[in-house]
């Protein structure tokens, strides 16, 4: 009978997944890898969607395909002859059959490892996989991560052989308790969407490295920090910024951390002069470097200051989507986005509604474009659920860990249009506190709610953010253009206020009267009115949205499965009339 039970285990077991419930990999496992030399595992992987999750159910990761006598037994999957997929990539774009697939998929490949140094450590970095991901190396489950847009790290050292078989399962099924949750206005691309890389590190390595201007209004002090992955005390850490003549040695403390604040007179980073300095740190056998800009962003009363100069946020929102490869963009495409925004006269991009690739922040640093970054705490979430909170907080911290040295990132946003209920307020307060604790060098915000009955920004969250942001669509969802004026008349908050979304749908090339929905002329009129009613009354504006993007909730024939509020069409080239309205406004502002 026992034998029978064993034989039928995978088909009779409801609890098959229990054995795979290892703790989630979190920000605690993050490793500073910028500018380190990766060994890339990008390229062609084996792939199969696994609707019934049978690979996990039958534990095929470690199945040998042989019985006790060494005879071959039938298997339901042959890892060596799977369909092929490109990593990074989205399965939705691999084949029309997978366009709407939401569920589990299995990725597989082999790689060779040969040891270079005694004691070396091998860390695997997955740039992003949407949404829940598990990693098996040579049949052993090593890590599990949730959150589709931030990198995570797994140490492979103990389980490596000469020839290795790595299997990654990725599941993008939407769930009520996840972040984001069930309902959102963008496409749920699934897959390993950013690079997979190995890093070869010494036995004790630099796990974290931060360089920033101390935000004390003097513009003359730079803080440098490292943290080793082990609590080694008394190790000498050498910090260097050659161009500024800075060279400083500091000993690590009992937690393996070294920190110093040095006097300096850097040329400050701003949009006109995005000056970056090479910053280095060396400790024990390890060394790291980064290219860092030094700047100070601050609010005072209703104003926002960059390096002490009052600024207006000439923004635009943007999703991460390529013309035909889903979430996967090349650097050329990112530069195209930055250039289009620059050409429109922008000084800031709002990267909605989830962390975009870290490459965008690197390129924005170089291009002199400020960034607003956010996590997908979007619309309704399970705010009561402590696990949902931990997950959101972890996504925020992974994002902060990743982009902390990017001068371009000036605002962390913790949410978008969430209901003003107590559990949400507590949730958001927790996230804001986390941002402030881990990063005093940036501002915080969130898209707060407008009360359309009393016509004002009315959201308890406004008290806790540095910059009060709100989204409004007067002229579109509400047809009266003046609504935004009334809201501004009725709202008095002594903090910077920015409109993080406004706009109207328009099908590129569809022309007609200025009151006819979905025409370029109507979209143009909406923007003319927005400018008319908000100019001089707010500290920044972010039209929704730079490019049309795919969204399954947009089913009107004029939309055709796209959110058509782009100032530029999906082809990223065809500019609609409203683009020029914003261009004229921003260029002259
Ligand atoms: C919003 C959301 C954004 C939507 C937009 C729209 O308020 O924040 O994600 O895409 O409205 O087009 O309605």
- Biggest sheet strand line-up: 23-24-25-26-27-30-31-32
End-to-end Cα distance, whole Å, is 80 Å
Report the count of strand segments. 34
Structural domain tally: 3
CATH fold assignment of the largest domain? TIM Barrel
List the ligand species. (2S,3S,4S,5R)-3,4,5-trihydroxy-6-oxo-oxane-2-carboxylic acid
CATH architecture of the largest domain: Alpha-Beta Barrel
The helicity comes to: 10-25%
The average pLDDT is 96
Question: Which regions are unreliable across 5 or more consecutive residues at pLDDT < 50?
Answer: none
Assign the CATH class of the largest domain: Alpha Beta
- What portion of residues belong to β-strands? 25-35%
Radius of gyration based on Cα positions: 25 Å
Major beta-sheet overview: 8 strands, parallel, barrel
CATH superfamily heading of the largest domain:
Glycosidases
Structural class: alpha+beta
Number of helices: 10
Would you mind describing this structure in some detail?
The chain has 589 residues and is of the alpha+beta class. The protein has three domains: 187 residues, Sandwich (Jelly Rolls); 90 residues, Immunoglobulin-like (Sandwich), CATH 2.60.40; 280 residues, Alpha-Beta Barrel (TIM Barrel). The chain contains ten helices and 34 strands. The strands form nine sheets. Strands 23-24-25-26-27-30-31-32 form an eight-stranded parallel β-barrel. α4 packs across α5. It is globular and about 80 Å long. It starts with a helix and ends with a helix. The relative contact order is 0.10. The model has no long low-confidence stretch (mean pLDDT 96). The structure holds (2S,3S,4S,5R)-3,4,5-trihydroxy-6-oxo-oxane-2-carboxylic acid (GCB). The site of (2S,3S,4S,5R)-3,4,5-trihydroxy-6-oxo-oxane-2-carboxylic acid has 9 residues, from loops. One of its GO terms (biological process) is carbohydrate metabolic process. Belongs to the glycosyl hydrolase 2 family. Pfam families: Glyco_hydro_2, Glyco_hydro_2_C, Glyco_hydro_2_N. It is an enzyme of class 3 (hydrolase).
């Amino acid at each position: 009978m026992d034998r029978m039970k064993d034989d039928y285990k995978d088909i009779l077991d409801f609890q098959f997944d229990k054995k795979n419930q290892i703790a989630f990999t979190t920000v605690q496992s993050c490793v500073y890898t910028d500018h380190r030399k990766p060994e890339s595992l990008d390229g062609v992987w084996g792939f199969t969607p696994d609707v019934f999750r049978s690979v996990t159910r039958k534990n095929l990761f470690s199945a040998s395909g042989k019985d006790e006598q060494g005879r071959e037994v039938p298997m339901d999957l042959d890892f060596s002859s799977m369909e092929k997929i490109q990593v990074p990539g989205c399965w939705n774009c691999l084949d029309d059959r997978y366009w709407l697939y939401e569920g589990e998929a299995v990725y597989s490949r082999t790689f060779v490892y040969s040891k270079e140094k005694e004691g070396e450590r091998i860390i695997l970095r997955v740039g992003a996989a949407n949404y829940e991901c598990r990693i098996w190396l040579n049949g052993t489950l090593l890590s599990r991560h949730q959150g589709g847009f931030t990198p995570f790290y797994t140490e492979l050292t103990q389980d490596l052989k000469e020839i290795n078989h790595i299997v990654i399962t990725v599941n993008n099924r939407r769930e009520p308790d996840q972040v984001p949750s069930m309902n959102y206005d963008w496409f749920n691309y699934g897959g390993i969407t950013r690079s997979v890389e190995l890093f070869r590190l010494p036995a004790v390595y630099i796990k974290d490295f931060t360089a920033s201007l101390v935000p004390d209004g003097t513009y003359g002090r730079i803080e440098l920090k490292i943290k080793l992955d082990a609590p080694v005390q008394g190790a000498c850490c050498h910090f260097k910024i050659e161009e500024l003549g800075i060279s400083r040695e500091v000993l690590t403390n009992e937690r393996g951390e070294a920190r110093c604040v040095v006097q300096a007179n850097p040329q400050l980073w701003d949009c006109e002069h995005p000056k970056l300095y090479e910053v280095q740190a060396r400790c024990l056998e390890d060394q790291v470097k980064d290219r860092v800009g030094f700047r100070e962003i601050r609010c005072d009363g209703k104003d926002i200051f960059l390096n002490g100069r009052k600024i207006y946020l000439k923004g635009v929102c943007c999703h991460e989507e390529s013309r035909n490869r889903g979430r996967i963009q090349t650097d050329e495409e990112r530069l195209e986005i930055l250039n289009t925004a620059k050409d429109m006269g922008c000084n800031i991009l709002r990267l909605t509604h989830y962390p975009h690739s870290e490459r965008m922040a690197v390129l924005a640093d170089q291009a002199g474009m400020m960034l607003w970054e956010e996590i997908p705490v979007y619309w309704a979430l399970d705010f009561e659920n402590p696990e949902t909170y931990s997950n959101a907080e972890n996504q925020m911290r992974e994002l902060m860990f990743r982009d902390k040295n990017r001068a371009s990132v000036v605002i962390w946003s913790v949410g978008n249009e969430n209901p003003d209920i107590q559990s949400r307020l507590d949730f958001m307060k927790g996230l804001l506190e986390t941002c402030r604790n881990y990063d005093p060098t940036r501002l915080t915000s969130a898209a707060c709610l407008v009360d359309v009955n009393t016509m004002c920004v009315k959201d308890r969250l406004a008290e806790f953010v540095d910059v009060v942001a709100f989204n409004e669509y007067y002229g579109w969802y509400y047809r009266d253009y003046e609504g935004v004026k009334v809201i501004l008349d009725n709202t008095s908050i002594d903090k910077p206020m920015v409109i993080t979304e406004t706009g109207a749908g328009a099908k590129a090339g569809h022309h007609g009267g200025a009151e006819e929905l979905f025409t370029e002329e109507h979209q143009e009129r909406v923007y003319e009115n927005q400018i008319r009613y908000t100019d001089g009354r707010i500290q920044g504006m972010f039209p929704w949205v730079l490019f049309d993007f795919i969204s399954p909730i947009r089913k009107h024939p004029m939309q055709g499965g796209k959110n058509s509020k782009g100032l530029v069409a999906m082809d990223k080239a065809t500019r609609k009339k409203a683009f020029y309205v914003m261009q004229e406004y921003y260029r002259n502002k």
